[in-house]
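Hey, resending since the last one bounced:
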Amino acid sequence: MKKELIEELFLKFENARNIVESIECWSARDVQEILGYTKWDNFLKVIEKAKKSCENAGGGISDHFADVGKMIELAKGAQREIADIVLTRYGCYLVAQNGDSSKSEVAFAQTYFAVQTRKQEIIEKRLLDVARVTAREKLSKTEKNLSGIIYERGVDEKSFSIIRSKGDQALFGGFTTNAMKTRLHVPQTRPLADFLPTLTIKAKDFATELTSHNVVEKDLNGDSQITNEHIENNLAVRKMLGERGIKPENLPALEDIKKVQRKLEGDEKKILKQTKKK
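The structure tokens again:
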């Protein structure tokens, strides 16, 4: 997400924020507009899902979703009251969690309402963490999909492990998976991908997606054919990165993604705990 968009959305949510009896809250109508939902009825469906999530988490729906009226200006100075809902920070967070996460505005809101700080740089850091965790989860699904495809084509679990290792060797300029673990000080018992930056994770994911596609498209079978295909795809991705001046093996390791994930998951609990105190 571009820094300019982050700054724009940050200011929009800050300006829409109200304080009622020492509690932060937002108008659902304002949130609807910021999140890019054009129809109130469609946004209400998201709010209903959020209410269900609140109930399932043990929160009081009325504490975080308060029905109110809102006056809007009509032509010639006339006014009309429309239905609105006052949302707490936790309520807004649940709305964002149940929204369309492919929308940049929704992805930003998920983080904005999850953190307790008002500092923009903290929000930017969390957005990067979310992107990395999402990329890692996507890679796991892609690798699982590939394993399912090739197991039907004469490749067992041991061979699949070798195929992945050969792919890593191609992507990392000759460094094997274990060599990269040593290079990046990754424990040998942990997956290398758990310590890779988002760019490298996505590179591995793209190469694996290509292999899955081509195994089916070219009707490849057996260790040799599929291994060669995976190597070629990783070499192609490496070449593309190289043309942009990037060598995957030289990118530094990042924090254990399991720790990052636990930290992100803990944010929701902190929000609920904080709102229950008020």
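Strands lie at 18-20, 23-27, 65-73, 79-88.

Sorry for the duplicate.
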